[in-house]
Amino acid sequence: MLDQLRRMAVLATVVEQGSLVAAARQLQTTTSAVSQQLRALERDMGVTLLHRSTRRISLTPAGERFVQGCQAMLAAAREAQTQLHHLRDAPEGELRISAPVGSARQIGPALAPLLSAHPAMSLHLEVDDGFTDLVAKRIDLAVRFGRLPDSSWVAQRIGVKSVGLYAAPAYLARRGVPTSMEELTRHDWLALRSDANAPKPLPLRGPDGREELLRVTPRASSNNQLSLQQLCEAGMGLAMLSPEDVDEAQGQGRLLPLLPGWSLPVLPVHVMTPQRDAQPAKVRHAIDALRHAFADKVPTNRAEGQALSA
After folding, report:
1. pLDDT of residue 86
2. Which residues pair with 58 in a beta bridge?
3. What element of type H or E holds 186?
């Protein structure tokens, strides 16, 4: 079937160019190869399609009817190729992104200029702090914070997300403000469920530059980072949150930062795609925009931590 379709394209090109020589030039092959393709097509069809002479060619009545379908097929193939090139070079169509809950605060501003500059492009943001079947959801691009799950998708690091320690004023009024590593261990902690299932030591770097490991058992947990922040605002304990996520709550006095001068590990930010090469323009441009939004702006001497969201 593929050979026959190729021969039909040769016939359409011969008629379009007006001669075997011109068709061979267009197809970047020899005149004898074009002639062989035409003879093979006539043999397959069981009918003569072209009258040939030393000076000109002409279609038979059967050839005139048959070539219309060949020309339509060739035109459709060229249009498909043009559309594919356009898709490769110009951002358009729906961009489907998977990201943790709450990340739209950074993803939205990062992609807004891209969408504004390309009206033929649209965005669907699939948010979930748990496992997402990227293939079933037809995801083009996934944004992940912290340690990456096992996946066949290709990951690119695009930046970091800073993390701080926060608590509500009501909680601090009730339990006191921690000022040292020892005091931190006596407080109630909030964590994502993955952290609650397998607590890991948390490295903290003090004002003197010395790193210490903090071991705590969460008093409450959630599988959702936004819910974790809400529990913290409700005065249920201390939580590791991103300053970019809590700036409004901090500005309104609902949360207070703790231990100034101490630093927590930063979270690496990755984008994941089904493949590394031949990405559509919408994906390439989105990665560039996100890389700028999450660019490494945190001191490089800070360690990298576990994921705040899966």
Report:
1. 62
2. 51
3. none
| DSSP letter for each residue of 188-203 | -BEEEHHHHHS---EE
Q: What is the model's pTM?
A: 0.64
Burial classification of residue 210, based on how many CB atoms lie within 10 Å of its CB (0-12 exposed, 13-18 middle, 19 or more buried): exposed
- Cβ neighbours, 10 Å, residue 259: 20
In this prediction, residue 297 carries a pLDDT of: 53
Instruction: Compute the C-alpha angle 92/93/97, nearest 5°.
Output: 105
> At 29, phi and psi to the nearest 5?
-145, -170
3-state secondary structure of 55: coil
Q: Rounded distance, CA 124 to CA 101, Å? A: 14
DSSP 3-state of 148: coil
Taking only Cα atoms into account, the Rg of the chain, rounded to an integer number of angstroms, comes to 31
Residues 6+ apart with CB under 8 A from 300: none
Cβ neighbours of residue 165 under 8 Å, at least 6 residues apart?
Answer: 238, 239, 240, 241, 257, 258, 259, 262, 264
- Alpha carbon distance 235, 232 (integer Å): 5
Split the chain (310 residues) into runs of 10 and give each run's mean pLDDT.
Answer: 87 89 90 91 90 80 91 88 70 90 86 92 87 83 82 87 93 94 91 63 84 87 88 95 91 94 88 81 92 68 43
**What is the C-alpha to C-alpha distance for residues 109 and 124, in angstroms, rounded to an integer?**
14
- Mark residue 304 as left, alpha or beta (left: phi above 0; alpha: psi -120 to 50; beta: remaining): beta
